[in-house]
Amino acid sequence: MKVLVVLAFVATAAARPNLGFQADAADVSDAQKQHDINFLLHKIYGEIRDPNLKGKADSFDPEADLSHYSDSGEAVHKLIRDLKDHRLLEQNHWFSLLSPRQRHEALMLFDVLIRCKDWDTFVSNAAYFRQRMNEGEFVYALYVAVIHSPLAEHVVLPPLYEVAPHLFTNSEDIEAAYRAKQTQTPGKFQSSFTGTKKNPEQRVAYFGEDIGMNTHHVTWHMEFPFWWQDEYSHHLDRKGESFFWVHHHLAVRFDAERLSNYLDPVDELHWEKPIVQGFAPHTTYKYGGQFPSRPDNVNFEDVDGVARIRDLLIVESRIRDAIAHGYIIDKQGNRIDIMNERGIDILGDIIESSMYSPNVQYYGALHNTAHIVLGRQADPHGKYALPPGVLEHFETATRDPSFFRLHKYMDNIFKEHKDSLPPYSKEELTFTGVNVENLSVDGELETFFEDYEYSLINAVDDTEEIADVEISTYVPRLNHKDFAYNIEVTNNNGKEVLTTVRIFAWPHRDNNGIEYTFDEGRWNAIELDKFWVKLSPGSNHIVRKSSESAVTVPDVPSFDTLFKKAEAALGGGDAGLTEFESATGIPNRFLLPKGNEQGLEFDLVVAVTDGEADAAVEGLHDNTDFIHYGSHGKYPDNRPHGYPLDRKVPDDRVFEVLPNFKHIQVKVFNHGEHIHHH
């Protein structure tokens, strides 16, 4: 019996395309780049604290030497003209990506940064515009540029909840932080979730309000922005399908957390029915007042200047019509067939909608418009001049329980399409000569809560004269004990074969204790892992640790850690930050749903499929430094996301007799444990 080396997706983004960039003049080290980005994002409402960057901000002339831009300075002329004409949003004002003018300004800066050919030009522009543009626009543009520019390939972005703590932290804790700074008393404040025990939704607030879950959601939207156009630099592979998949996962994971807490799965939202769940965010903009609240049982109203409810219904029916027909109509009036495995990608582009939508005039922008309409229900006619609601920022959207109801609504439209495709046959699913003999789990599947601390230094006003004091907050976050999957596989092909191992789990029963059918279960399946492995002839024993999951990423290092590691590496060491370069997956601590005291039953399945047939890129098993949802290069797995559980299963016997498939029941426990670290 041989123990195998598993070839995994390692969580880093693949190399960015080279867009004719010059080697940096003095070949700037990754540590120097990390140092620069740390300082550019620290204390964004105050002065830049690095003398070198501050010097650039004061004296740099973006238009002086246009040979440093790949577009001969076109983007920089545009932005400077608007700056000189005082057309840009002032500083000390809220920013929302879903506001067309504010988005336009942030993207003008992104356009300048993505055209910079060398690091010095990149960082000089960033410093220059940081002093002159709205802080929210600046942070957004810089984040997206660092994610997509080849110059910043190895830079780790600091956690957004430390850059802009107001979006993630309850007002009470922010006030406590201000008091601590004023009285120069260091403080650690315990943060709690919104609401009280009288609100059953409170039981799952640990999911929607988790700072890491918020970061995952906003990061995904930065990796795959709806406004992206390929002329910025490269094509984002399977963006529409990825939009479906990542939001499908938020929905099914949220339902699994609900079942863990004795709540029914969420119902979909609908435009003609009341929004049952109200929401009081308990968060405040740094500038712009409190985030608006919404009472229970509000009926949808048209939102002035954004959309009428009637328009959303029309757009929805056009999309569902296209699904029923099996094709969509592009701008020129041609049919595009969607009755195939790539149809979901086009549908995702249309529903979001992104710039990739083949016919935005006709199919509209259901998802983006819905976010604004739902976010504005507290002030639909602008009577009270309220700032945008939590749903109008990707950083904060999952805090509102109606986010998941909105996405359930869209997820059901995607399901309608997926269910219209022919089911996989036994022949298509069989991997000849490969048998999964046994599947088991090492260690009890057990979750617990633990306190997680993050800094609030950037929440408070700041001048160089008043020293910083340590101010932080700690908040309970879900985590799980380590476990591993044991998979025994026989390869009877007489030669080595490359395989893809796909692991999923779904809740065994609904909240009334009724077992889900295989077909209901598979749509609610959570993808736990996916990796490649070469099977030797004969029997193979695969051990895969929970910490190796390809769908998850570690917690983002704090500002403090990033500062320390960059400074240490400037002295010539290695910053040791490689594993944090992509933050696109869900936090590893959320790999398992919470479960409960009795042990929540899950169906755990593994499918071992043909790696050669699945591969979308050459040399898959050698070149695996590629995270699950990373936006660079081609997605390595040719199969649709969720394969082989992505299509309807009218007869579950098809799966139960597959030799390359194994299905067991497991229980996830939570014994009420809460670890305090202070």
From TrEMBL:
<dbReference type="GO" id="GO:0016491">
    <property type="term" value="F:oxidoreductase activity"/>
</dbReference>
<feature type="domain" description="Tyrosinase copper-binding">
    <location>
        <begin position="400"/>
        <end position="411"/>
    </location>
</feature>
<dbReference type="Pfam" id="PF03722">
    <property type="entry name" value="Hemocyanin_N"/>
</dbReference>
<dbReference type="InterPro" id="IPR008922">
    <property type="entry name" value="Di-copper_centre_dom_sf"/>
</dbReference>
<feature type="signal peptide">
    <location>
        <begin position="1"/>
        <end position="15"/>
    </location>
</feature>
<dbReference type="Pfam" id="PF03723">
    <property type="entry name" value="Hemocyanin_C"/>
</dbReference>
<dbReference type="Pfam" id="PF00372">
    <property type="entry name" value="Hemocyanin_M"/>
</dbReference>
<dbReference type="InterPro" id="IPR005204">
    <property type="entry name" value="Hemocyanin_N"/>
</dbReference>
<dbReference type="InterPro" id="IPR037020">
    <property type="entry name" value="Hemocyanin_C_sf"/>
</dbReference>
<dbReference type="InterPro" id="IPR000896">
    <property type="entry name" value="Hemocyanin/hexamerin_mid_dom"/>
</dbReference>
<keyword id="KW-0732">Signal</keyword>
<protein>
    <submittedName>
        <fullName>Hemocyanin</fullName>
    </submittedName>
</protein>
<dbReference type="InterPro" id="IPR013788">
    <property type="entry name" value="Hemocyanin/hexamerin"/>
</dbReference>
<dbReference type="InterPro" id="IPR014756">
    <property type="entry name" value="Ig_E-set"/>
</dbReference>
<dbReference type="InterPro" id="IPR002227">
    <property type="entry name" value="Tyrosinase_Cu-bd"/>
</dbReference>
<comment type="similarity">
    <text>Belongs to the tyrosinase family. Hemocyanin subfamily.</text>
</comment>
<dbReference type="InterPro" id="IPR005203">
    <property type="entry name" value="Hemocyanin_C"/>
</dbReference>
<dbReference type="InterPro" id="IPR036697">
    <property type="entry name" value="Hemocyanin_N_sf"/>
</dbReference>
